[in-house]
Design a protein that fits this description.
The protein is built from 7 helices and no strands. It has helices at about 40-50, 55-65, 75, 80-110, 115-120, 130-140, 145-155. The chain starts with about 40 loop residues before the first helix and ends in an 8-residue tail after the last helix.
Length: about 160
Amino acid sequence: MKRQRWWTNSGSTKARRTRAIPIASDSNTANLRTGRVRTWPVGSIVLVGIVGLPILWLAAAAVSAGFDPDGGGLAARMLPTALRDTGLLMLSVGLITGVLGLTSAWLVTHFEFPGRRIFAWALVLPLAVPTYLAAYTFVEFFRFTGPVQSALRDRGAGHRRLLVP
């Protein structure tokens, strides 16, 4: 069975008629019918500031402790290591997920193979799970007292810590 291409309209060569949607260049422009200026961007900026306040406070506390290595400040001892580790983690996770995601998506969309339709849906399923729930589940399964580590210890692999540092 030949797959239908996304750019064809069931064999028809006629182009679909579309209606252009006007896009305002500035979100604070006046509404042409009412003459009122939209103010929702100001409210969203205030909300972002309120939500980001704890992070800004932590950053200020870390910097105000000082950069003196002998003073024991958080910025001097922990900040360079934490920034390096965070950057390395972001880079490696981005590269690995990008390569795996693009490769699997390309294979599913360009080739016909048994189970392709199942894989097409299964590749989208991780987007339905909240990140904190997936992280909590991962930690519970692979922690020292979790089922995976317990099963490995029962099979004689208990002299090493495996899978999760």
